[in-house]
Amino acid sequence: MPDLSQLLLFAGLLIVAGGVAGLLAGVFGIGGGAVLVPVFYQVFGLYGVSPEVSMHLSVGTSVAVIVPTSLRSFAAHRAKGAVDHDLLRRWMVAVPLGAIAAAVVASHASSEALRGIFAAMALILALRMLFLSNRFHLGKDLPGEPGRSLTGFVIGLLSGLMGVGGGVFNNTFMTIYGRPIHQAVATSAGVGVLISIPALFGYIWAGWGNEGLPLLSTGYVNWVAVALIIPITLTIAPYGARLAHAMSKRQLEVGFALFLMFVSARFFWSLVG
């Protein structure tokens, strides 16, 4: 069992992570999960949580934090008038179904599998943003049905498996079909709402009764971490949204890509280390 100094250090790391996550939620239209998942994984490991469940707990706890963060970020972006409400209405069923499917998959997946998925998808998206952002386009507008709904389901599935708010995938989807990056970022905050709420209940169900979880956990959600981070992310997210609208398209893309590459490297290292 960690001593008091270790617990204070863990709390400090979580508080810092909450500030970074809130900023990223506003800047990139994400729920902050891409930074919270690796931090949670490290902190839970130091706390003595079994490696068999630490990744699942990290993803589930990240999803819980994303719920209020995405709501706050969505409200800030909607005030700017950049959200594609028509796309969100069309995804009201497909995206949540994907998020629920992710929780079902995670209940049977190993920790290594979840880390591998996280690392691989983050790297692919980063490379696309860095090298193909202005040269790789599939069309001038979003596809019709059933392709649009299928895409929403896949975004919900992959985001739920990674514990992210969907911005990493929706930003890519919208920009390769000619939508402005600022509209993609704003809409991604709404996608985060559609993903995080059903995924939260899914991860609670998936981890229900697991004996390897730390105190004050409900399924794969640890409420101590949630309580520490949510107030900070809610406070910081609107400042990130303001920063996003002050940046150029390329600045947003490069910053997002570099961040994803860092996260990918961290998880690949955990697999081989």
UniProtKB/TrEMBL annotation:
<feature type="transmembrane region" description="Helical">
    <location>
        <begin position="91"/>
        <end position="109"/>
    </location>
</feature>
<keyword id="KW-0472">Membrane</keyword>
<keyword id="KW-1003">Cell membrane</keyword>
<feature type="transmembrane region" description="Helical">
    <location>
        <begin position="153"/>
        <end position="173"/>
    </location>
</feature>
<feature type="transmembrane region" description="Helical">
    <location>
        <begin position="252"/>
        <end position="272"/>
    </location>
</feature>
<keyword id="KW-0812">Transmembrane</keyword>
<feature type="transmembrane region" description="Helical">
    <location>
        <begin position="12"/>
        <end position="41"/>
    </location>
</feature>
<feature type="transmembrane region" description="Helical">
    <location>
        <begin position="220"/>
        <end position="240"/>
    </location>
</feature>
<feature type="transmembrane region" description="Helical">
    <location>
        <begin position="185"/>
        <end position="208"/>
    </location>
</feature>
<feature type="transmembrane region" description="Helical">
    <location>
        <begin position="116"/>
        <end position="133"/>
    </location>
</feature>
<dbReference type="Pfam" id="PF01925">
    <property type="entry name" value="TauE"/>
</dbReference>
<dbReference type="InterPro" id="IPR002781">
    <property type="entry name" value="TM_pro_TauE-like"/>
</dbReference>
<comment type="similarity">
    <text>Belongs to the 4-toluene sulfonate uptake permease (TSUP) (TC 2.A.102) family.</text>
</comment>
<protein>
    <recommendedName>
        <fullName>Probable membrane transporter protein</fullName>
    </recommendedName>
</protein>
<keyword id="KW-1133">Transmembrane helix</keyword>
